[in-house]
Amino acid sequence: QVQLQESGPGLVKPSQTLSLTCTVSGGSITTNYYYWSWIRQPPGKGLEWIGYIAYSGSTYYSPSLKSRTPISRDTSKNQFTLQLSSVTPEDTAVYYCARDPGLLGFPGLGTYDYWGQGTQVTVSS
Question: Which of 52, 64, 80, 82 is in Cβ range 3.0-4.6 Å of 35 for a Cys bridge?
């Protein structure tokens, strides 16, 4: 079974960069045709897709966040990372990593077959 686990700081100050790592076990992040995604859920709100890094290494981001949400990977460690820059209190959320199976060849549709447990991130001074 594929397992994903998020790690990173639980508290970040405004204007800083949030760096989160997702460690994947039970499957390779380079395996066709999966898309390794970051999603978040602010308190009292729904899920918000952030972006993904594909099996090929290609990335795609939410248009509202793309300028400050680079996603990268370390294939030797089977990990992928999120670096969210210039954070504000509005970035406070539970952050999840998840695997997108690319249903019908279209990733980013909001369907995921494996999720991490999520990690709470609070942006506060």
Answer: 52
CA 71 vs CA 28, 37, 43, 104, 125: distances in Å: 17, 9, 23, 23, 25
Question: Comparing C-alpha atoms, which of 125, 98, 97, 121 is closest to residue 9?
Answer: 121
Nearest to 31 by CA among 61, 6, 5, 54: 54
Beta bridge partners of 6: 22
One-character DSSP codes across 15-70: TS-EEEEEEEESS-TTSTT-EEEEEEE-TTS--EEEEEEETTS-EEE-TTTGGG--
Neighbours of 19 (CB within 10 A): 14
Strand-pairing partners, residue 37, are: 52, 98
Residue with tokens 């990733």: 107
Q: What distance in Å separates the CA atoms of residue 78 and residue 72, rounded to the nearest whole number?
A: 11
